[in-house]
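I hope you will forgive my troubling you with a question about protein structure. Here, with my thanks, is the record as I have it:
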Amino acid sequence: MTGKSAFWIMTILLAGILAGCGDSGSKSPQVLPVENVPDHHVYVLHSPYYVTTDFNYNNPVTDFDLNTLQDYIDWEYDKLDNGLLDYIGGDFTEKIDAIDAPVVLQNGYAETRIHARKGEVLTLSDIDDLRDEILGQYADGWGEGLEQMHFTITNADEELYVSLYGGSDWSIHLYGKYIYSSDPGTGEVIVTPSGP
């Protein structure tokens, strides 16, 4: 045995001894190799929202507190046991773990984040179905209830309402960077998030 080999054996033994030190009931954390960590993909949808005093989407109010609006949306969303998953249907829902409350952005868009289950990816068809379902909820379902109550009153005693759907230019679209590939078995287009 060479001196170099003996050095590495002693180093490994010492590392094992040190790893066993500490509380008798403690366990060293298990670190999975990067290739074995399951993916947990997040898909992001953007859609316009409107703040009005009279539901006139062509004349929205721009001077309001964004945090107050977000608090109101979060408060209403927290009333749902499983978020919008309680109200949307389709086979694609088996691939989804959670849908976050929409986050209102300063640029006039609401951001809806969809968390896929670990190891799952959505197809382009899944995303189209998901967009249709969320559109329905923002227009006639949960979103319709949201706009029935004002979220604040201005200094001029005007009540402000938020609508997550409306206007002639309204659309909901995938936002961010994605990789599109073809499933060799089904031929469906697979959409994989690749970054912010």
In short: The radius of gyration is 25 Å. Residues 86 and 183 are 29 Å apart (CA to CA). The mean pLDDT is 82. The first strand starts at residue 42 and ends at 48.
